[in-house]
User: What shape does this take?
Amino acid sequence: MSNDSELMKYNDRGEKAISLVSYIIMGIAGLLALAPCMHVLSKAFSSASMVTSGQVTFFPRQPQMETVSFILTETMFLESLMNTLIVTVGGTILSMLVTVTTAYPLSKPKLKGRKLFLILYIFSMLFYGGMVPAYMVIKTLGLMDTYAALILPFIIIQFNMLIVKNYMEGLPESIEESAKIDGARHFRILFSIICPMSVPVIATVSLLYAVNYWNNYLHAMLYTSSPGKKTLQLFIYDTIYSAETMIEKLMTSEATNVSVEGIRSATVVLSIIPIVLMYPGIQRFFVQGITIGSVKG
Assistant: This one.
């Protein structure tokens, strides 16, 4: 008995040591990941002299809000943000509508031609036509410089649809059969029964779509040209790589405590706020939706 108790104590000490080392490693990794973010955040709220002289590290020096005020009032940040919000919100809603209405019938083994449809979706997921054909399609349809050009290419992402399909395959058939006995049709069953039961995966895939629309830079660059349709990602690109324009605006404005590097940092900080605010609300669904939707079927 004494040997067994000593062995158990030894194992407990070993597990505690491993846990301690794991926490230390994860803490160091977290700090390394957080350090660049803190540096950018500090420069966004530090005075121009501190930023220009390179004295800003991980905490603001001589804190000020003039840089943020300059971006919000003297640049097209708000217009670009509105364009991105329109594309993100509208695109996510349309994408989820198409994704759910596609995944639901494909989750039914009795659907005629189901295997063929799945093969086509998987084939199109693995083999992409390329940038030039996509550009020609958008131009031929007359969608250049419109919101539709930024939404339609991502109206359905095959991987996201397969996640939702696999999740729906794991839902009990008895509930649908009971609804059919009560006279409910397929659309009523889908939106009144299946969707409420699929909230975790719907929330997860909605976040994936929203982040995809929010970060989309290539399509905005290819399909839009007018300043009124410029999205936030294009604005960030212009802000980071067009220092001359920023200097001209600084010279003609009354902002005296603003630097070009501070403007770049503040633009990045402001651009991630909406996604950061949205993520905690659906974080509890994220892991559950991905794991369940990826192992069924």
